[in-house]
């Protein structure tokens, strides 16, 4: 049911400026008749300034006159030119019984045409649970064969204003995520560019000196020739010793 903006303030104005019954005012403002009576007695909504529904385009004087002449008639709010945000109750969104069968269709439409929306946002817009959303998405819903995407605004489950706000928030969130990814890519590119910078002559000379200081010809020979290098050294030692013995014997004979 569509209710006027600031229903209690509107009720205060209607009580003070019309002869409408408590039931008529309560029905129009979405209040209980006893609450309207409490407003009239000064026990409820104390200090609230009345809001003229005629000046804000929610009622016409002709509509008020019609209902004042017939106590069984009910006020009809003017259809707004745009979406008027309705007062939200605490807790989850209440969906009328007649509309609850349309929620899977609304969920399917949101998943298809607004994939940027999170499950929490869809749950808030449609008044459902994440389990139902996942069931519709995975086609495991008990009525999956009969589900067809339908706009939740046209179904009367949410207003266009609420849908636009959710989509806008998702767009901002995605923009922030894309900005974060871009910053990470830029940082990685900067690091790669820094690593690719050619070494200065001093750095090149330093690397050469470090390589020369750690150079071990014996280790390099063993790595290249293996055991043959070691055997060659032993043969060279033996040949040197033999040459020395022959030279000593020769000098002794002389």
UniProtKB/TrEMBL annotation:
Signal peptide: none
InterPro entries, sorted: TrcR (IPR010421)
Pfam entry (one): TrcR
UniProt biased composition (Basic and acidic residues): 207-221, 228-254
Region (Disordered): 78-100, 207-254
Record-given protein name: DUF1013 domain-containing protein
